[in-house]
Amino acid sequence: MANREKISRDMSMAVLFGLLTCVLALRCAECGNPGNIVFILTDDQDLDLGGLTPMKKARTLIGDAGVYFSNSFTATALCCPSRSSILTGRYPHNHQVRNNSLTGNCSSPAWQKGPESQAFPVYLSKQLYQTFYGGKYLNQYGRKDVGGVSHIPPGWDQWHALVGNSKYYKFSLSVNGKEEHHGDHYDKDYLTDLIANRSLEFLDKRSPKQPFFIMLAPPAPHAPWTAAPQYENAFKDIKAPRGGSFNKPGKDKHWLLRHAKNPMSNNSIKYLDNAYRKRWQTLLSVDDLVEKVVKKLEQLQLLNSTYIFFTSDHGFHFGQFSLPTNKRQLYEFDIRVPLMVRGPGIKPNQTLKAPVLNIDLAPTFLDIAGLNLSMVNMDGQSFLYQMAPSLRNGSARPYFLVEHTGEGHPGSDPTCPKLGPGLSDCFPDCVCEDAFNNTYACVRMLSDKNLQYCEFADSESFVEVYNLTSDPHQLVNVVKKVDPALLQIMNQKLIKLQSCEGKTCWDTK
């Protein structure tokens, strides 16, 4: 009798231990198998100005089936530095990618030898994930002077990466280290569809014995805004939103915004409305991509064991503070990004308000893969606990950093000689979107007070402060109106964040 009780007790303990092991190691769907991951990263897609509106399929299949993050941010509002942060889980001051140029460390030899060798796919590969990459990688990727198309970043099994910046037709891909040229035939060349179809082939051919990670980086909605033929006439009556800070003067803001022409010229407004409409048209193909991938996962009976992430590298603006079209600014329209996730353990129809950064994506992927995060050097933190609290414990960071290194040309723009040197991305009416003195760092706080505090590395040592509770469109710089003691506190937080590394970037107690 005692033997039977002991055997029964031992069996109960074994079952309990097995269940705990499954939960703690996040063995999704079937105990013993790490979660599969699909990561879709768009290019320049805004959140605040309606960027998700045209994507009905993606919202239904990902957001409604899981979670929307209402406070998702990029650590920097520029393509190459932001994508480098996504890949490494690090702030720009730690991965040292400053802008989209080779001299700014974008896909440079220093990047390849250092941060790229410690990016999240390297760790996933060690966890025996089968990995696939399709689409835009980094703006300078594929240049002959940095290894050309034969350079395949470590950790990727299948590599179908765009050479250079976003294009829809007439581009080259590095396909597993060999150059593949594409023309302008929709059926075989349109990049968004091409990477979607190749990811489906990868799913069909993968080994069912190992988990997989798929990263799809379509060009949309980045310029040149080339829609698929079936979507070229969509949204005929759509214009850029006219509310908030649209066509408002950059009063009390840093020099770059104070110089912008206000009111904007009719040509600038016509241009930005056209851009807004065309961007929505290109996003319809991304919507199709989402649908294709979800249907394939469902067909292969993998949907319930797969996490699907959807986000953008940064936001975008269309006439806010009289800046026609670009990114690179510290304001909400440029630093907020869409983020939707569905997957095992995530309840549907959730909207989560705790802040999440793009540097948090990499540690979240590794957390899903069952990796011990204390073994990796990343500035971000996993947000798996937010999506699936039954699987993880955690706490949200109280504040975070946004930083940007301004970019300009040594000489004057020949069409705008009166503005002097140091500017870039200038429109015909001499409104410039970036400059050397557009270098800034901000503390963004949400949990205690809804504040943003920014310092510029310019001759004025300019400071901007916004109370986003009373002023959600950041119309009024309140730096001269707030308590100096608060300014000092924010300055100290900023100093700490600008030198943070690893855990000190989010464990701010």
Automatic annotation (TrEMBL):
CDD domains: G6S
Signal peptide location: 1-25
Pfam families xref list: Sulfatase (PF00884)
Cofactor names: Ca(2+)
Compartments, record wording: Lysosome
InterPro entries: Alkaline_phosphatase_core_sf (IPR017850), GlcNAc_6-SO4ase (IPR012251), Sulfatase_CS (IPR024607), Sulfatase_N (IPR000917)
Main location class: other
Post-translational modification: The conversion to 3-oxoalanine (also known as C-formylglycine, FGly), of a serine or cysteine residue in prokaryotes and of a cysteine residue in eukaryotes, is critical for catalytic activity.
Lineage of the species this protein comes from: Eukaryota, Metazoa, Chordata, Craniata, Vertebrata
Annotated family: Belongs to the sulfatase family.
Biological source species: Albula goreensis
Catalytic activity: Hydrolysis of the 6-sulfate groups of the N-acetyl-D-glucosamine 6-sulfate units of heparan sulfate and keratan sulfate
Residue runs in coiled coils: none
Any one Gene Ontology cellular component term annotated for this protein: lysosome
The protein's name in its UniProt record: N-acetylglucosamine-6-sulfatase
